[in-house]
Amino acid sequence: MLFSTGAANEKLRTALFAAALLAPISFATAQTSQARQETCDRPVGEPVDVTDVTVHLELKLADKRLIRIAGIEPARATKTDPRLAEKARADLALWTVGAQVALTALDPATDRWGRERARAFLAPEQLSLANALIEAGWARVDPLSEAGPCLKPLLQAEAGARAARHGLWADPAYAPLDQAQDPDFSGVAGRVALVSGVVANVNAGRARTFINLGKSRQKSLTLTVSARNLRTFTAAGLDPKSLAGKTIQARGLIDTRFGPRMELHVPGAVEILKDAASDGWHRAVPAKSGP
């Protein structure tokens, strides 16, 4: 469901708040990580009042907790739209401040900024705030802060928002990059980017696996997976060596110090857009000294 803006948005917030007062819903607390993974679309905590929202799309609760919504990378101000982050904050505040949210906590403790990472749902309808923010174009999917099984609906919501150019997707700073068009990666160095391309080859080394989206070390993006993280990929059924020849989309931080690179930390950072052509050319090869 995509939240509307303006008067319609206020009407929605008021209706949800009234419903929460008339028919509060209680949920049992889950204790195990397995239980948390099975609650992608429903909360397991009691509803709590929201008192404020930060520009980073964090929720301030009446019980003094600060909630980082799992699965989202909030929109940030850009040269084209310096108010982009504030517009996202304003909409989230309109949806939630004065209403109640129910949560599924994902970490046993707060992070260094005092935030709890959780899935957040508007009570009592159990509407996912992560999904709503992504559909509205006020956030991108963050695979590092959400479990793999719960990413699919968020990625689908993002694809719809991108196609409709909602929110941040109308800003050139957030335009996805296509390796086939030889993009200038220096312009996005130090930032998270979405990059698509055909995997030219995969070089498997001891310490790292290199997934190359082209043959030019200076112009083509190389995706890297550390040996430690490789186990996570294979356990999720995504062997990097199997990507050769496939068209993929990857998201992560761009590093241009040694040619354009992107470190992949979790399988959710990669989407397979098209299977490989059966021409027998693409293959995984042992690594020598680098990509």
Describe the structure.
This protein has 291 residues and is α+β, with helices and mostly antiparallel strands. It has two domains: 6-170, OB fold (Dihydrolipoamide Acetyltransferase, E2P), CATH 2.40.50.90; 176-286, Beta Barrel (OB fold (Dihydrolipoamide Acetyltransferase, E2P)). Helix content is 22%, strand content 27%. The protein has helices at 6-22, 33-37, 84-96, 129-135, 151-164, 227-235, and strands at residues 48-53, 58-61, 66-69, 72-74, 100-105, 115-122, 127-128, 139-141, 177-178, 192-198, 201-204, 208-212, 222-226, 247-255, 261-263, 270-274, 284-286. The strands form three sheets. Strands 9, 10, 11, 12, 13, 14, 15, 16 and 17 form a nine-stranded mixed sheet that branches. The longest helix is centred in the first third of the chain and has 17 residues, at 6-22. The chain is globular and about 55 Å long.
Briefly summarize what is shown.
With 291 residues, the chain is α+β, with helices and mostly antiparallel strands. It has helices at residues 6-22, 33-37, 84-96, 129-135, 151-164, 227-235; strands at 48-53, 58-61, 66-69, 72-74, 100-105, 115-122, 127-128, 139-141, 177-178, 192-198, 201-204, 208-212, 222-226, 247-255, 261-263, 270-274, 284-286. It contains 6 helices and 17 strands.
Topology (SSEs and partners):
Blueprint: H1 6-22, H2 33-37, E1 48-53, E2 58-61, E3 66-69, E4 72-74, H3 84-96, E5 100-105, E6 115-122, E7 127-128, H4 129-135, E8 139-141, H5 151-164, E9 177-178, E10 192-198, E11 201-204, E12 208-212, E13 222-226, H6 227-235, E14 247-255, E15 261-263, E16 270-274, E17 284-286
Parallel strand pairs: 3-6, 9-10, 11-17, 13-15
Antiparallel strand pairs: 1-2, 1-5, 2-3, 4-8, 5-6, 6-7, 10-14, 11-12, 12-13, 14-15, 14-16
Helix pairs in contact: 1-3, 4-5
